[in-house]
Design a protein that fits this description.
- The chain is mainly alpha-helical.
- Strands 1-2 form a two-stranded antiparallel ribbon.
- The longest helix has 24 residues.
Amino acid sequence: MSDVFWDAQEPDDVEEESELRYKRPWWVTVGAIVNLLLLFAVVPAGFLSLIPFFFLIYVYFAQILVWISPVLILLNVAVFWWSFRRKQAATTALAALGLAFVAVSFVVLMLWQAQIVILGIRF
């Protein structure tokens, strides 16, 4: 009796596309780094916002995110589109998280009734 419970697989001529076969564009790497930095900055600020005084720090951080939001939205949509088509789950999740951070920042500023400033233009 054999120790192997399955048949040997024969090599196929058609190979699946590996992550190592294509090179990740520079803008995807920049987007992933920006989103990781946002993650490391937003999560602690979110926890600290449970303390009343520190919520003002989160409001200030939200104003900064809203100020650069067009750049973040365009970058994250492009990264999401690229990574979703190539089935890269971690990069897709980071891009979606970056979009969620911008959306939550808009909501925080609307609830705080702060002035919305996007790239220097007041709304």
